[in-house]
Write a structure and sequence with these properties.
two-stranded antiparallel ribbon; 8-stranded mixed sheet; alpha/beta; 3 domains; 40% helix; elongated; D-Maltodextrin-Binding Protein, domain 2
């Protein structure tokens, strides 16, 4: 005798998708149904259980306490079912996994290393999604992400990948040796997406260095172009040392003096329900191995100019 006494699986799937998106419309798009069909299946489930699962608004829906209690169990159960099915299905090619990260980290750190991942892990097709705005990992936009920030993300697991220390760097040909040399070379800056009193920019650097502030003469919309300008010998840039570790190691750039400013770290983040996913685990371990080498290559700097 089947003691599970489960409602129809189609109704459970419709509820889980609607609860995850808090939208019948988005759930319908995911399941290739109409919003009306999703609404009908959810009402069927509510009638079967004898409780309301959603509070329906004009433009969105919210979970009732009963819905909040049911959603995690269904989400985790469906994820486990999907992993089980995937494990026994004959593999036709590499499994796809989407990694989201910032444009600066992608171009300056990750892209040069992706070929190594493909060589050592041919069974996982790693797809890179670059965006400076955060993505909805719980909603399935990506399987895991690298985010610049404090590392506290409700509902997500996270681990520090790369620390962030910001310091002046420039091409050796500029012959910059002390802060006294700064008035004769252009200062390179870039636009921060989000800024607060602790943002490691030039004004804060001059405050820590106890030097007379100087105006920026070259300003870019993103850190990548600021770094390229510094490599080209166009001035001194205040940038994340982790993003120029290779150039510091090869001598294309040098860090002539401090102080260094502490920024938020780059953190790996993933949905908690994917914590044991073997492909997510593989990518996480590989990224952490690559980050260990980068951290070792970043030179230490004195705390005073």
């Amino acid at each position: 005798m089947d003691t599970r006494q489960l409602p129809p699986l189609t109704a459970l799937r419709a509820f889980e998708a609607a609860a995850r998106h808090l939208s019948f419309k988005h759930a319908a798009a995911e399941l290739s149904l109409t919003p009306t069909a999703i609404s009908h299946q959810v009402r069927q489930l509510e009638a079967c259980l004898g409780v309301a699962l959603f509070v329906r608004g004009t433009r969105r829906v919210d979970l009732t306490p009963a819905g909040q209690g049911l959603f995690p169990a269904l989400r985790d159960g469906l994820d486990a079912m999907a992993r089980g099915v995937q494990a026994v299905r004959p593999r036709q090619g590499p499994r796809g996994l989407v990694l989201s990260t910032t444009m600066a980290l992608a171009s300056r750190w990750l892209l040069p290393r992706l070929a190594r991942f493909a060589e050592t892990h041919p069974g996982v097709a790693l797809h890179l999604h670059t965006c400076d705005e955060t993505v909805d990992l719980a909603g399935g936009e990506a399987h895991l992400a690298i985010r610049y920030g404090p590392g506290r993300y409700p509902g997500l697991g996270s681990a520090l990948l790369l620390p962030s220390r910001f310091a002046p760097v420039c091409a050796p040909a500029l012959a910059v040796a002390t802060p006294d040399d700064l008035p004769r070379v252009p200062l390179i800056g870039f636009e921060w997406l989000r800024r607060d009193a602790s943002t490691p920019d030039w004004p804060l650097w001059f405050e820590h260095a106890k030097c007379q502030p100087l105006p920026r003469q070259l300003h870019f919309s993103d850190e990548v172009h600021a770094i390229q300008a510094a490599i080209a010998g166009q001035g001194v840039a205040l940038v994340n040392l982790s993003l120029v570790a290779d150039e510091l190691h090869t001598g294309l750039l040098h860090q002539p003096f401090g102080p260094t400013l502490e920024g938020h770290g780059f953190h790996l983040a993933w949905p908690e329900q994917r914590a044991t996913d073997p492909d997510v685990t593989t990518v996480r371990k590989w990224l952490q191995q690559q980050a260990t080498g980068t951290s070792a290559a970043v030179p230490s700097a004195s705390a005073t100019p």
